[in-house]
Structures are given as C-alpha cells and as structure tokens.
Amino acid sequence: MKMRLLLAAKRYAEQIERGMSDDELSEALKKSLGIFGGSGGPGRIHVTRQGSGLKIWASHEIHNHVTAKPIFEGKATIEMARYIYNIGNPADMQLPLL
Question: How far, CA to CA in Å, does 9 sit from each of 60, 61, 66, 70?
Fold first, then answer.
C-alpha cells in the first residue's frame, strides 16, 4: 500500500503542487486505491482498501471488511490525503493575514 501511494504521489506531483479540487482528488484516490485490495502479515498492520467509496480499513489483526467500519471513508479519506500529502484546494481562498 505504501509503495502504491508513493507512486501515486509521483504520478500526480504536478496536480499536488498546484492543488486539487475535491473532485480531482477523489478521482485520483479512486485510481490509486484500485477496485479492491489489501496487505498485511505477521508484525505488520493489516490494510484493506476500496476505491469505490474511498474506503480504507486498518488494524493490528486480520479484519473483516464487511463487518468492520473503515477508518477512513469518503470525505474523511480526501481530508486525510490532503493532510498527509499537503495537497491544497484551489477553492479554499485564504485572506491575507497582514
């Protein structure tokens, strides 16, 4: 998952630099997360991802994505991606502080 997201950050470097609207970021995340997948193993965090709905599950143990609630879903996934990768939103206009 980490490698997949790093590759996505490189693929979208220009858009990340200029900022992405929620719709643009949502589409980029859907492509990066893929249809469905995951990773995990002994001593590693188990992660499941689903592009549809921008859902991400994570736990220290094997989890059931059908019954477990995702740690990020929809708008929360977009907000966390903005925070982690420092992606601005061109629609957010900040007034000059001075």
Answer: 25, 28, 29, 22
DSSP H or E segment with residue 47:
strand 46-50
* Residue 73 forms part of a structural domain: yes
State percent of the chain over pLDDT 90: 60
Pair of tokens at residue 9: 């950050």
| Domain around 78 | 2-85
Is 91 within the bounds of a domain? no
Does the pTM of the predicted model rise above 0.70?
yes
Kindly report, residue by residue over 32-74, the tens digit of the pLDDT. Answer: 999 999 999 899 999 999 999 999 999 998 899 999 999 999 9
Give the number of domains in the chain.
1
Q: CA angle at residue 80 from 97 to 78, to 5 degrees? A: 95
Going across the sheet that includes 37-39, the strands are 37-39, 46-50, 55-59
Side chain identity at 30, as an amino acid letter?
K
